[in-house]
Backbone:
């Protein structure tokens, strides 16, 4: 007697239902995607008790003939593909022909459809058609799913609360509405309308309908393409962020997908301008040749593979980063000149004598350049000013003083500003360090006392494979015994007095890299780490001139609005808003303009 048996069709469908129909939201997704594939421009979803009692989807699509209506409940029955070659040119949301068979295996279904010629109404229970009659002759399809999971009590038992199940459904309908702004979607639960979109084919308007005014007003439009991909959509500016990735919506050829690599690239584009634990709101459409993607890798088709992922990631990163930088320039008009007018007296600085030991003439251009590099980070005396040109170059924003040892209060003619002194100084130092790290010219300082670093075997192997990068930065490195490196020189831009600490942090960053080493991310992390150490700390008493220098240096930056970790550097309070807070605006009106 054989041990292997062939499953019945009913059992196979129940097993398939476990993959395709994980929860109520999956049922809604499959039904609504069928409506979209049918060419509908108006789709209405009605739920009773979050869909546990009833899921009803009404569309105005092409409908089905009587024979097609019967066939659609069979497993692997589909109108989307006909041959193996069609798998490489999938242009519809559904294609496997599993969804309706799986759903009907664990529920009771009523189907009413009309294709313009035949009107058909079917009742299906546990996958079997139990009743067939003439339909309502309403163009399109009405499908009702009742008593979901009635014959699979284990699945029913492990469903979440009604509110949780409903939230998943709402979330997916929102994403579908954003992926198809040309379709009007309506979602109703227990006679309460939760979602209503106009189907205007205007993505910005749909964002407003889904997320509201405060979100839509802070969205930035993007549009770019390369040889392989075209992207367009909207991304949030720095006034808007979320604590999770749920609002990072990527759409590929009309299909809402969740791809970790794509999401990571978008988040990386916000690096240093958005806090690590914050995420942007994005709605990005990605269009590409169907042959460059594989949608047949996940039972619910919510993830896909890209054959030219690097090309897409490069396009996304450059486009998103450029849009962020170009969109947030609201502070720059308040500064007459972006150049700090600080003239340092070099006689007041202690320059490392070893700095020039390889130069025969200390007045060479190279020596002068090295000196300037060191001065940027090793200044110890107060800032000096050119009194003759002070009035001409003076910044409109003037400091008032420190509050609570951390926040610098300043103002111009009609706005008050509050700066975080550490964050502001850190942004300036970060961009300086990044420029030095990415510079093709490297100036090296020999160390009076070389530094020896000992590592574990794995750490030593990780570092050894990237020693060429360390040397490119200007470090003199050599092997010095087992798993030990001797550092005898460092780049001249390392802050004096912080040499050992800075060098150790750079090697730690190399060790922390997991997977493929990314030179751009490495440069960024090194610059951020060194900038944090070099910047003025909170609760530090700084002079008036140093306060002005912090403001001036901040507005020299390419992106002055956040520190490298994404925290704000400055918050502004327009005069009108301050007057409103203190009721001065209304009071003035009541007194006919007299205080």
Residues:
């Amino acid at each position: 007697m054989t041990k292997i048996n062939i499953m019945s069709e009913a059992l196979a469908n129940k097993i398939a239902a476990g993959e395709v129909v994980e929860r109520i939201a999956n049922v809604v997704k499959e039904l609504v995607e069928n409506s979209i594939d049918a060419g509908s421009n108006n789709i209405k979803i009605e739920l009773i008790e979050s869909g546990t009692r009833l899921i009803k989807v009404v569309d105005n699509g092409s409908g089905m003939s009587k024979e097609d209506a019967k066939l659609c409940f069979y497993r692997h029955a589909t109108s989307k593909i006909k041959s193996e070659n069609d798998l490489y040119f999938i242009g519809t949301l559904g294609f496997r022909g599993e969804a309706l068979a799986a759903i009907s295996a664990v529920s009771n279904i009523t189907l009413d459809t009309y294709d313009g010629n035949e009107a058909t109404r079917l009742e299906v229970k546990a996958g079997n058609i139990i009743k067939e009659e003439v339909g309502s002759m309403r163009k399109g399809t009405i499908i009702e799913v009742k008593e979901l999971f009635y014959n699979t009590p284990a699945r029913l038992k492990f469903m979440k609360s009604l509110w949780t199940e409903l939230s998943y459904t709402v979330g997916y309908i929102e994403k579908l509405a954003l992926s198809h702004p040309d379709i009007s979607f309506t979602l109703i639960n227990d006679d309460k309308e939760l979602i209503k979109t106009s189907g205007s084919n205007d993505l910005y308007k749909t964002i407003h309908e889904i997320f509201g005014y405060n979100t839509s007003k802070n969205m930035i439009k993007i549009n770019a393409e390369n040889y392989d991909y075209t992207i367009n959509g909207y991304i949030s500016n720095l006034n808007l962020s979320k604590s999770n990735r749920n609002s990072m919506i990527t759409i590929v050829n009309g299909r809402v997908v969740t791809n970790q690599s794509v999401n990571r690239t978008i988040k990386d584009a916000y690096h240093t301008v958005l806090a690590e634990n914050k995420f942007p709101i994005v709605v990005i459409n990605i269009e590409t040749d169907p042959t460059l993607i594989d949608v047949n890798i996940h039972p619910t088709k919510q993830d896909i593979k890209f054959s030219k992922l690097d090309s897409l990631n490069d396009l996304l990163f450059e486009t998103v980063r450029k849009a962020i930088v170009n969109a947030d320039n609201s502070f720059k008009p308040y500064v007459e000149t972006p150049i700090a007018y600080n003239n340092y007296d070099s006689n007041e600085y202690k320059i490392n004598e070893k700095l020039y030991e390889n130069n025969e003439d200390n007045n060479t251009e190279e020596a002068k350049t090295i000196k300037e590099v060191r001065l940027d980070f090793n200044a110890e005396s107060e800032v000096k000013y050119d009194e003759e040109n002070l009035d001409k170059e003076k910044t409109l924003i003037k400091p008032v003083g420190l509050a609570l040892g951390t926040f610098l209060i300043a103002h111009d003619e009609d706005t008050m500003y509050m700066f975080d002194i550490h964050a502001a100084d850190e942004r300036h130092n970060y961009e300086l360090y990044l420029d030095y790290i990415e510079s093709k010219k490297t100036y090296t300082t020999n160390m009076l006392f070389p530094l020896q670093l000992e590592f574990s075997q794995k750490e030593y192997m990780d570092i050894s494979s990237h020693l060429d990068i360390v040397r490119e930065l200007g470090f003199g490195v050599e092997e010095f015994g087992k798993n030990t490196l001797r550092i005898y020189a460092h780049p001249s831009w390392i802050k004096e007095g912080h040499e050992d600490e800075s060098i150790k942090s750079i090697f730690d960053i190399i060790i922390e890299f997991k997977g493929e080493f990314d030179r751009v991310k490495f440069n960024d992390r090194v610059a951020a780490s060194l900038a944090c150490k070099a910047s003025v700390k909170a609760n530090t008493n700084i002079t008036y001139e140093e306060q002005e220098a912090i403001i001036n240096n901040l507005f020299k930056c390419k992106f002055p609005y956040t520190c490298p970790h994404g925290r704000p550097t400055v918050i502004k309070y327009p005069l009108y808003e301050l007057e409103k807070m203190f009721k001065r605006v209304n009071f003035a009106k009541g007194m006919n303009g007299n205080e």
Remarks:
- The chain has a mean pLDDT of 77.
- The longest strand covers residues 444-454.
